[in-house]
Amino acid sequence: MSTNICMECSDLNHWFCQENKISNRVLYNINMKIIRGEIVSLVGPSGCGKSTLLRAILGTHSPRQGKVSIFSDEKNEFYTIMEPSRDVGIVYQRYALYPFLTAKENVAFGLMLDQTSIPFRIFRPIKWRRIRKEHIRQAVELLEKLGLGRAVNLYPSEMSGGMCQRVAIAQALIMKPKLLLLDEPFGALDEATREDLQHMLLHLYQENLTAFKKGMIPPFTIMIVTHELDEAIYVGDRVIALSQYWNWKEQGFKECPGATIVYDKVAPVFSPYDVINHSVFLDQKTEIRKVAFDEKFLMDPTTACQFWKQMEQGKGEGVLKNDNCKI
Fold first, then answer.
1. pLDDT digit string, tens, across residues 18-70
2. Helix (H, G, I), strand (E, B), or coil: what is residue 113?
3. Is 291:45 a contact under the CB 8 Å cutoff?
4. Does residue 116 form part of some domain?
5. CB burial class (10 A; 0-12, 13-18, 19+) of residue 206?
6. Number of domains within the chain
7. Tell me, what CATH number does 57's domain have?
8. Domain residues for 41?
9. pLDDT by residue (tens digit) across 163-184?
10. Does 164 fall in a domain?
């Protein structure tokens, strides 16, 4: 496998059991590769297993069959995710900030746990103060990058929901995960705040583009789950749709074996400074609705999964234009 691949799901299946019998088949035959520097949007009908897939990638709920692999720069090889690690971070819709810590202290908290221990902080206070100062410096720098330079000393109760969500994203990013998962992170926010956070993601994508042009590894690889198709197309350079609506009966199954990937195509890439006419999303949004959300339109799940063919044809935009992305 190419080291430009950050994460791979291979033949992933998941189901739930009750009284030692399969009671609910959730995911079927999930095969997916994520390229470094991508922002991949994951969409699908309610209950199709998007969160289950994220938990498998995160390592909190291993799949019943198949595996999730992530590339380790340190070992220069892929390893199977069996439990949570710092290589995969996640931000949920309901952020969890410590109310008694300021924004910068919340962001620096993960570094403290990762790099020091309680005995170290007690018995080596001078060295701990130096390390703490560096942690706070990194936290402030990241918060400024995410547009929170004036809020570094505020507590969660003093910040808006959108500001708190930025802090939660900074908490995850400061650990420098190979892949960051965003599970409907903007779902509870008003439209204006949601647009601000979409622009924040596009700014991170611009940093990826700058890194690619310099021949460097892009710093941010993100998968965002969203129920807004406009948002999926706008912030992602690729849209993947997971759905239980596909022609499983024609393929010999007596019951649905689970949701699978029914759509995988490149999306247009936007700058955070672009003025967007959402009518440009119409054709792709219409196709996604038909393929993934229409219970009456059942097709072979490979038909609309054209991403790698599009890559071979040079149709990728942004970081996907890079020839090294082809495998």
1. 777 777 889 999 999 999 999 999 999 998 999 999 999 999 998 999 999 99
2. helix
3. no
4. no
5. middle
6. 1
7. 3.40.50.300
8. 5-87+177-193+221-325
9. 999 999 999 999 999 999 999 8
10. no
